[in-house]
Description:
Blueprint: H1 22-26, H2 61-66, H3 69-83, H4 88-96, H5 98-105, H6 110-129, H7 132-146, E1 150-151, E2 164-165, H8 169-190, H9 203-220, H10 231-240, H11 261-271, H12 278-287, H13 292-298, H14 301-306, H15 311-323, H16 325-331, H17 334-370
Antiparallel strand pairs: 1-2
Helix pairs in contact: 3-6, 3-8, 3-17, 4-5, 5-11, 6-7, 6-17, 8-9, 13-15
Amino acid sequence: MSTTDTGAQPTFDDVKDNVLTAERLLGSERRWRRLGEPVPAGSTLNEDGSRDYGLFGPGSVTWEVLLHPATIVFETVAQATLQLLYKPIPAGIRDEDPISRKARAGTYTVFDGFERAQRNSGMHAPMWLGNTETATRMAAHLGRVHRHVKGDIIDVATPELGGYAAAEPRDAMWAAITELHSILWMYERFAYHGDEGPRPLTEAQRDQYVREMGAYLRLVGAAEDEIPGSMAELDALYDTYGNLFGTSETINVHPETGQDMHEVMAECMRRNWHPSHQLAVDVLEEVYQQFVTQILAAFPERIQIKAGLDEARRAEAARLLEDSQDLIRRMQLPENERRIMRMMWGPDGVALIANARDLHQQALRERAGES
Length: 371
């Protein structure tokens, strides 16, 4: 049944705590923290007495990519851009995400959308940069939450695609892949190294990155026989599941109500708007909206085509990426990275990143000394 059948929608005065302050925008560790304070990688021991560095650890290619200022700044937009092309993910958001439920209830605001984006990085940091127990605990929490995110219809216009289940192996695997693979593509085109511009990894480093990704895929419950061991195997997975990637005019249509959830959200944001919400809009513009096209330009052509970019628009995106290099470099300067890190990764994320960077740099120095 459509929410329009439930009676009058809430007005601005009905929406509780609608005024947004700078303090509320920033948030405390409670916004990101689940099931206790995360334990940093390397601060505990394994049963054999070795240090527990979690899933990846110092010296790994994954930490080299994850800990770069470009990743800290652009992870949110890179991840979201690719994930929204994997159709089961927008279907799950459409049907079961709290922001969609708020929209159907008429209480959704732009701050809700901001907070949803804000948590993405910080709630992944314990899995990527914590010890094994922390990573396992957070993954289990997210798995419990995602068990409720399932439905029989991905897209009302293409019922042959079947349904989705966020906690089941296929969709859990792709949620994790689209997080880490998008970061790699972004790193290779966005990450400045001092005065040097972005540089791609070697083929051997890319393969190592995929192998290291396997630990994360196992943690979230991917099927062992589908976990790729090389970049070639990962590319083949995109071919296998190609029908689940792309854009659709009907992906946001709720199967039961027939409502386009983007339209419902937009209307709620307008109706529940307060001038203080501009604080959230400004941050979303800075860290997300202004870089979507450039991020797409950093993705392979096959993904750009899935995103609906024809040859002319791909060329335009490439030009925009080139023209944006000075801005991209400035966003990675320490003062900008610190501000965005605290805003998007949260206090625990800041501490986990600092700890992991110290460990990683020490490992690189030791490796250089050995050579």
